[in-house]
Structure formats: C-alpha cells, structure tokens
Amino acid sequence: MIAARTEAREGLGGEITEAMTDAVPQSPKLMTFAALGLSEPLTRAVAALGYLAPTPVQAAAIPVILREGDVCASAQTGSGKTGAFVLPILEMLGRAPSASPRRVRALILVPTRELAAQIGEAVAKYGARLPQPLRTCVVVGGVSINPQMMALRGGADIVVATPGRLLDLVAQNAVRLSWVKTLVLDEADRLLSLGFAEELARVLALLPDRCQSLLFSATFPSGVLALAEDVLHEPTKITIDAGEAPSPAEIVHRAIEVDTGKRTPLLRHLLATNPWSHVLVFVASRDGAEHVTLKLAKTGIAAAPLHGDLSQGARSNALAAFKTKKIRVLVATDVAARGLDIAGLPAVVNYDLPRSPVDYVHRVGRTGRAGAPGLAVSFVSAETDAHFRLIEKRNQLAIERERVAGFEPVELTVPAHDPHGGVKGKRKSKKDKLREAAALAGEKKAE
Ligand code: AMP
User: pLDDT band for position 377 (50/70/90)?
Assistant: First the structure.
C-alpha cells in the first residue's frame, strides 16, 4: 500500500511551502479511525461496515478537516474519498448541535444525481449511530421540486446537491446558504466539464465570506486550478500516489479485436461464456444505450439502459436493479463513469471506446473497487485501434490484442502510420470531422 502525500501550500499555483505534514500517517495500515480523531459513534459505524483501517485519502484528509483546514485532494475513484469528507463533517456537526434547525451547515456539491444519491446514502450509513441524528437532504434536478421543498422546510444540517436545483430552491426561498460552515466540491473537474461553472459561481456567491472548503477532483485542468485558487484558503494538498487507487493498475485489462458490426454478438458470447454476475457496458450515445439494451433483451439477457435522456425515476430504477443484481447488464453512457460505487462489479465492457484516456480510467474504475478483482474489456476495431493506442499510451498500459474464435475481424486491423503523423488510408475527410464533432457534442449532451 502506498501512502498519501500531503503538502501544505500557499495557493495552488504557488510554491510548496511545507512538504509532508507530520500529521499524515505514512502507513495507513497501522492507523485507526479513532486515532484520526473520530469519536465512537463513527468508528463503530465504519467497523460495522467492515472497514479495517482508513484508506490513504481518509488518513490524510480527516485530521486536516477536523482542524477546520481547507483541502485540495486529487484522489482516484474508489479510493474512499466519500468517507474522507463525510466522516469528519459528521464528527464536526455531531460535536456542535445546530443553533437553529433551519440552518444548512454543510453543503456538498456534486455533478450528477446518481452521485448525490450515493453520497446521501453514505451520510446515512456513516451517521447511523450518532446520538443525535443529523438531517440530510439530497436535492437534484430531473424530479419534482415540491418534495425537496417540503423536506427542506424542517431544515437540514447537510445538503447534497447538484448546482442547478440548489439555485432553484434558493430562488424559491426554500433554503439559505448564509450559515454554511463547510463546502465540499466533489468531482470538481466533472462539475466544470458538465457546464456547471456559471451555476457554481452563483452558488459560491451565496456562501459566507469564509467557510471551510474541500475540493476533490480526479484531474486538475486549468479550470479546476482556477476554481481551487478562488475557493480554497491555504489548502492542504493531498495526492494519492499512482498505484494506490484500484484503477487502472490493479485491474486486468483486455482488448478484443472485433469488427464494429459484430460487437453485440461478441458481447452476448462473452456474457454466455464468462461467470460475470453483472456487467457494466459503456456506449458512446443515448441511442447506442437503447439499441444495445434492446438487442440483449431480445435474446433473454436482463439489461437496462442508463443515460441522460431518461427520467430520474428510470435512472434510479435502472441503477437500483443493477446494484441488486435484478438485471445482469447495465448499458450506460459516461453518465455512469464517474463516482458510482457498484459493489463487487466483476467486469466493465467498453463496447464503444471512451473519448479520452481520462474517461477510460473513470470507466474502468467502476470495477476492481475496494480491493476486489476487476476486469476491463475493450472492443477495438480497425477504425478505433489508433485511438485505443493513445488511451494505452497515456495510461501507461500495454494491452495485448486478443481475438475470439468466431468473431475475428475481417476489416483491416492495424492501419499503417504515415511519416507525417496521420494514419494512412484513414485520413478523415472534412465531412467526417464535422460528423465526429457533431457526435461529440451530442455525447456531451448525453451525459
Ligand atoms: P468511494 O471512493 O468513496 O466511492 O468509496 C469506494 C468504496 O470503498 C465504497 O464502497 C466504500 O464503502 C468503500 N470504503 C470506503 N472507505 C473504506 C475503508 N476505509 N475500508 C474499506 N472500504 C472502504
């Protein structure tokens, strides 16, 4: 196990002023939750969940958060980051009961409804043994606003929200943010890439001048760095060293060469010949999700689609059916790639390849979580081979190409590179490029 590294920094763009804070345990295996400063109701709750020791991100973040410091954490999916911020928030809120039941004291902002629901569940699980229960409201778009207004009427200690719906509720006077003590921006890169920047700025403007801010992000593009500069005050920077997260290092990666038109029969074959209890299949578009689901269902395979066009009810039902193994296959767009925790998921299939190397990491991070074995299978065609090589290169992976008997590709498989950097015989026409750009825009919307 590799330790988390923390650095106290003066602003994110500035120089490191103090490296390796001594409060950070170097061997989280020896650390206990109690030693991090959590009291019995919480240590008993995590013990009941079977957690033997804090994960590195928890060991690094919990003491800092309890000291009311700001945190900027770069942690991979599956690293236990939800506990890293939820546990100390519960500890702090439990210690100081609210002066007024109507005051929101912790605000957790997330990019997707599923992630919000998941964090709401984590709060309930971790906080189950607190002597005085804390009120938590999950507020997300895509469902009727009225029940959320009703739920907020009695006040809430913790609000988990997507930014748009939160602003709607503020506009309706259902919630006020002027008492927020702790702000969490979870999956901050996703918040920005999904176009929440403007809404986020409006939410931030409603918060008190100084509140404790915790930013968690898998990647740190310039937008996230600027957000961190803006929001965080002398943050402790936490980085989980590569190799600690279950993905992609601890996952078995397979790449199967197959012609585009043969992918569904191959998927069916893999489902018939592998003992996978359930499988998450990633596709590039909403239509793709519907289409593949239908094809599987026609041959008696219990499957459901998950994409941004569905109602929130349908999305929740599909996810719940998948988590409880009522269906075997969930066919999803990248809306499911981030943050979702599906216990013991044995395999992820990239029916369509992800757009970027980072998306690949997020997708495959749905399997191999919490130390369980994981498998990521990617379908690679002649068309997509060059793109997959880029994904491998960026993620420092070298995945052997396999063929499955009866599904061998007949299309040209390895296009030769020309000396000018293009791919011979595969140079895209202007029309192709426009089509790709339109498809990309469509996919972005699909999330
Ligand atoms: P997260 O990265 O927060 O989505 O957590 C990933 C999974 O790890 C969840 O199923 C958690 O229940 C689990 N988990 C979180 N913390 C621990 C821990 N300290 N020990 C074992 N499992 C954990």
Answer: very high
| CA pair distance 342, 346, nearest whole angstrom | 10
Atom 16 in ligand 1: which residue has the minimum CA distance?
A: 80
The reply to whether 223 and 334 lie within a common domain is no
CA of 371 to the centre of ligand 1 (A): 10
Q: Is the pLDDT of residue 365 over 90?
A: no
* 158 against 76, higher pLDDT: 158
Q: Is residue 438 part of a domain?
A: no
Protein residues with CB under 6 Å of any ligand 1 atom: 51, 54-55, 58, 77-83, 341, 369-370
Which of 58, 74, 82 has most ligand 1 atoms within 8 Å of its beta carbon, as the pocket-test mutant? 82
CATH label of the domain that carries residue 255 = 3.40.50.300
DSSP string covering 281-340 = EE-SSHHHHHHHHHHHHHTT--EEEE-TTS-HHHHHHHHHHHHTTSSSEEEE-GGGTSS-
Distance from the CA of 127 to the center of ligand 1, in angstroms? Answer: 15
Asked if 350 and 273 sit in the same domain, the reply is yes
Residue 366 structural domain: 251-425
Separation of 169 CA from ligand 1 center, angstroms?
Answer: 31
Last residue of a domain, one of 239, 263, 290: 239
- For ligand 1, atom 20, the nearest C-alpha belongs to 51
Count CB atoms within 10 A of the CB of residue 383: 14
- Is 339 found in the same domain as 283? yes
Question: Is 211 in the same domain as 262?
Answer: no
- pLDDT at residue number 245: 42
For residue 369, the 8-state DSSP code is G
Question: Is the pLDDT assigned to residue 305 strictly greater than 80?
Answer: yes
Question: Are 335 and 383 found together in one domain?
Answer: yes
The verdict on pTM exceeding 0.90 is no
Do 205 and 290 have their domain in common?
no
Contact 18, 7 (CB under 8 A): yes
CA 391 – ligand 1 centroid, Å: 27
pLDDT of residue 363: 87
Q: Report the atom number in ligand 1 closest to the C-alpha of 79.
A: 2
What are residue 110's phi and psi, to 5 degrees?
-135, 160
Q: Whose CA is nearest to atom 21 of ligand 1?
A: 51
My answer on whether 347 and 259 are in the same domain is yes
Q: What's the pLDDT tens digit per position in 101-138? A: 668 999 999 998 889 999 999 999 999 999 988 999 99
**Contact status, residue 80 vs residue 107, Cβ threshold 8 Å:** no
